[in-house]
Write a structure and sequence with these properties.
Chain lengths: 281, 293
């Protein structure tokens, strides 16, 4: 741990191509997560993101067993999971328990498929913690391509999506196709989640998709400012986490989660202080 | 005469065997204020859903602002039942009102952002919500949220205003303020208003016609025609008394225990704005029992 502040070593490692690629991947993911995050938070979808990211593991395990590419399997698994969860009404009272039920069964299937696999799964199966270092060009291209598609879609759908997320009843009355939007958004989140899973791992997807946006929504009610802050927080967590992990050679996950959690704590304290001031005035 | 704001003809709505209403012919002219009354379960909210295109008629036709419902939603301002917004929701009052202006259109909305801001500011000022427009909506009081709802419905200059119990759980002062805002918009823009309520008194001075629904039957007419002992007794199929006290209408059922919220009776009402329109109209279960006789 005494290497944590070995700036010379950090600077030297930053010169390597694979480190720069990792930073690029992290910043694209941070951008995606930051832009989607405030909508995820206002739709109360944190648990469904968690479920989607875990079911990406099942997709990856299925791909491993069938001899397909693990990353593509994870992508497929996450999108199927997102569609299934997106079809459920998020207003219904059993939404949470249905996610729990689907999630448990999906993970069980994943365990079974890993057991059935005759090779050494652990070599190829870094989905739990991700393998941000060692991304090849193809996966960077896939990530960037998906990011461009998701951002483009989001730009086209943003206003009705925000309307439907915050005020679904009136949105429906004004003719916004809330059900179709919920499905499209679930698939967008599923794709972003799966890309997150194969790079930063399941464990970190929540740290990037939910925590920065939850922090931002604590300190501002303006949708534009919340989005900008969520992107900033996600970038600081993702890029900062990687840079800090370089010198000690520690797992990226630990640093990314720690930074995003710290940001959340600060925002929580700020919002508490503000609210007390408002009610005292 | 111009196109009716709302036109229902031979309209029938049934869920399976249960007919909510049938043979409903109703034309609402621009600038007209129609109150929809009736016990719970009589199909008031379903009528709203039909006009919004969220529910299909079992028979008959409906047109809103000259278009089939659902397509004409641009011309509709909708005020939902007063329900507290989630306190953690990260939007400001200004954003909620902005949804009413262009929340249904695609894109980021960067074009016309100046015009949007001007219109939202004007709508906020009209309902007296400028002071709290920048605050998170979830932290506002029920009355403040309902003013924002009114601004949200009015900002698009709707030609038809559909209000579903907009006064529910507001205190008398806010009931009065909200109904005056709706009425002001109606007079200024010649908009039609369809106002679902179980209490006619807060809006009695504004009402042109009443649509009173009870268990599959209905009456349409001026308050003086519909809100009478004879008409309502016939509609409920049992004896109800309509009493007028100081310019207010109270409907009294045959059983005195029907009046649950008697607290309202004792209060000194503001002119034209008090609670309690009465037992038979208020309590849905009672309405059904009465009609079964």
């Amino acid at each position: 741990m005494d290497k944590l502040f070995d700036f010379e070593l950090t600077a030297r490692l930053l010169g390597y191509d694979f480190v720069l690629t990792a930073l690029l991947v992290a910043s694209v993911l941070g951008l995606l997560a930051g832009v989607l995050g405030p909508l995820i938070v206002s739709r109360n979808m944190a648990f469904s993101v968690h479920g989607t990211s875990e079911l990406a593991l099942t997709g990856g395990a299925a791909a491993l067993l069938l001899g397909w590419d693990v990353g593509n399997g994870a992508l497929a698994g996450a999108i199927v999971a997102a569609l299934v969860l997106g079809l459920l009404s998020r207003r219904s009272s059993d939404y949470d328990s249905v996610i729990g039920v689907v999630l448990a069964f999906g993970l069980g299937l994943g365990v079974l498929m890993l057991w059935l696999y005759k090779g050494r799964a652990s070599n190829k199966f870094g989905l739990l913690t991700g393998q941000i270092v060692g991304q090849d060009f193809a996966s960077v291209a896939l990530l960037s391509g998906c990011a461009i598609v998701v951002l483009g879609l989001l730009a086209a759908l943003y206003r009705p999506l925000l309307f439907a997320s915050v005020d679904p009843e009136v949105a429906k009355a004004r003719g916004v196709p809330t059900t179709a939007l919920a499905l499209v958004f679930a698939v967008m989140v599923g794709a972003a989640t799966a890309l997150g899973v194969r790079t930063v791992g399941s464990l970190l997807v929540l740290a990037l998709m939910v925590t920065p946006a939850a922090a931002a929504c604590r300190i501002t009610a303006s949708p534009l400012r919340a989005t900008l802050l969520a992107v900033l927080f996600a970038e600081v967590s993702a890029v900062g986490g990687i840079i800090l992990s370089l010198a000690p050679g520690a797992p990226v996950s630990a640093f990314v989660t720690a930074i995003s959690f710290l940001i959340y704590l600060v925002c929580w304290v700020v919002s508490r202080a503000r609210r007390t001031r408002v009610s005292a005035a | 005469m111009s196109t009716p704001a709302v036109a229902l003809s031979g309209a029938r709505l049934a869920y399976g065997d249960r007919v909510l209403w049938a043979g409903l012919d109703l034309e609402i002219a621009p600038g007209e204020f129609v109150a929809v009354l009736g016990p719970n379960g009589s199909g008031k909210t379903s009528l709203m859903r039909v006009l919004l295109g969220l529910q299909r008629l079992s028979a008959g036709t409906v047109r809103v602002a000259g278009s089939p419902p659902g397509r004409g939603n641009r011309h509709i301002g909708y005020i939902p039942q007063q329900r507290a917004l989630d306190p953690t929701v990260a939007v400001r009052g200004r954003d909620l009102v902005g949804f009413g202006y262009d929340g249904h259109t695609w894109g980021l909305g960067l074009r016309g952002i100046g015009e949007r801001r001007r219109r939202v500011d004007a709508a906020l000022a009209a309902v007296g919500a400028t002071a709290y427009a920048e605050r998170p909506v979830g932290l506002l009081s029920g009355g403040e949220q309902q003013r924002l709802r009114v601004a949200q419905a009015l900002v698009g200059d709707p030609s038809v205003l559909l209000c579903d119990e907009p006064l529910l759980s507001l205190d008398l002062a806010h009931q009065r303020a909200v109904s005056e805002l709706i009425d002001g918009h109606r007079r200024a823009n010649d908009s039609a208003v369809l106002f679902v309520t179980h209490e006619i008194n807060p809006v009695l001075p504004l009402v042109d016609r009443v649509l009173y629904l009870v268990d599959g039957k209905f009456r349409i007419g001026s308050p003086d025609e519909v809100m009478t002992t004879e008409t309502l007794s016939e509609l409920y199929g049992t004896e109800v008394a309509v009493v007028r006290v100081r310019g207010q209408i109270h409907v009294v059922g045959t059983h005195s225990e029907l009046c649950e919220d008697t607290a309202h009776h004792g209060t000194t009402p503001l002119p034209g704005a008090t609670a309690h329109h009465g037992a038979a109209g208020h309590h849905g279960v009672t309405g059904h029992h009465l009609a079964d006789h």
